[in-house]
Amino acid sequence: MIVRMPEISLVEVESRLHVVELGLQELRARVAGGVPSTANWLDVVSGSMSDIPEETYREIMAAGRAIVAGEADLREDL
């Protein structure tokens, strides 16, 4: 089966490229405005689970360890 690409003009190619360049510029600005790379990630996330009850926290950690150890079936809830 031969798939033919629709013909587009040079103007349309340039227009699409301009949109891509604007998107790239926006992404670069977002990255530049984010958390500085020198920030300690532990300081950034520290306390983020402080409102979770201790028992729930332990269950989450146990589930994470089981996933890492390959002991959990991640498809069981599908």
Short account of what is shown:
This protein is mainly alpha-helical and 78 residues long. The chain contains three helices and no strands.
String of helices and strands:
HHH
* Beta-strand content bin: under 5%
Strand count: 0
Judged by helices, strands and strand pairing, the structural class is mainly alpha
Number of helices: 3
Return Rg in Å.
24 Å
Q: Separation of termini? A: 36 Å
Give start-end ranges of low-pLDDT stretches: none
Biggest sheet overview: none
Shape: elongated
How would you classify the quaternary structure? single chain
Question: How would you describe this structure to a colleague?
Answer:
- The protein is an all-alpha fold and about 80 residues long.
- It has a domain at about 10-35 and about 40-70.
- It contains 3 helices and no strands.
- It has helices spanning about 10-30, 40-45, 55-70.
- The chain is elongated.
- It starts with 9 loop residues before the first helix and ends in a 9-residue tail after the last helix.
- The mean pLDDT is about 80.
